[in-house]
Specification:
Layout: H1 9-35, E1 42-44, H2 52-62, E2 66-68, H3 73-85, H4 92-102, E3 106-108, H5 114-127
Parallel strand pairs: 1-2
Antiparallel strand pairs: 2-3
Length: about 130
């Protein structure tokens, strides 16, 4: 690929995170093409939502805002489904409102650039 090899742990980690961000863009592009539905916002939950660099790179690479959190999304979703099943919460919409008021999220604004577009074009060729 004519790219320089990473020389430090930081360069290697950044390369991994940039690769994830580019894969997010590739998948979103494919989903939009298949469904005809635009993805307006990306939601990152679980452990990845704690990685500020990953979240910002995802926003920049995709050109979409990222909402990160909650971290314990799996447990929260399980609890929500149990609350609905037992009648403690009346609906999924009500449950989502409860979750939105109960857990902090962090928002990342996108800063797209020509460099991300070029990287996406190269990345897409490798996946073809």
């Amino acid at each position: 690929t004519a790219q320089p090899e990473p020389e430090t742990v930081g360069e290697l980690a950044r390369g991994c995170l940039e690769g994830l961000a580019l894969k997010y863009r590739w998948v979103i592009t494919a989903l939009e093409s298949l469904t005809g539905v635009a993805v307006e916002t990306i939601r990152i939950v679980g452990g990845g939502s704690q990685n500020a660099l990953l979240c910002q790179l995802a926003a920049d690479a995709t050109g979409r805002p990222v909402v990160a959190g909650p971290v314990e999304a799996t447990a929260i979703g399980n609890l929500l489904m149990q609350a609905i099943a037992t009648g403690y919460i009346a609906s999924l919409a009500e449950g989502r409102a409860v979750v939105a008021c109960s857990f902090a999220v962090k928002e990342y604004e996108q800063h797209p650039s020509d460099a991300w577009d070029a990287a996406h074009a190269r990345f897409s060729k490798w996946l073809a």
